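Fold these two proteins, one after the other.
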Amino acid sequence: MKSVDSHEFEQLIKQNYTIIDVRTPSEHYGTKIENSILADIYSPNFKKIMEKFDKEGNYLIYCRSGNRSKTACNFLTKWGYKNVLNLSGGIIAWIEAGKEVIK
């Protein structure tokens, strides 16, 4: 499992990566990275939600601070997903780096 900083995460968004937000629905609908898809890691359906995605795809995973997304990346890797990257520091680091969010 690899983590990337906000700058690299932003560059990868432009390279056809799918952005997955593993926070809760209330967090996601409050503030999110544009075009991110909600897949709440706390949901009992998390694995089922993720099974809809191609294991060969490219995924950028984020949460609030980087902990839940790190756990999600570990699950996804264990489940056979080939290219998952964690946003180091989560959306907090993203905002602190001056990157755009949708409110």
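Now the second one:
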Amino acid sequence: MRSAKLIDKTNQELQTELMALLKAQFSLRMQRATQQLTKNSEIKKVRRDIARVRTFLGQKAMANE
């Protein structure tokens, strides 16, 4: 996910995106635990996307104050 896509999203859309990423992260962790995960790099990508979305949510919160 690119940062340019996140700039235009509203807080509600970012929250929805965050929840989807957290569910994906959980799913990937379960796949890794049961040794069904083939691409270990996906966990890293999802983790960074979560951090990126949380950063944008924080920036928008600071801008509203």
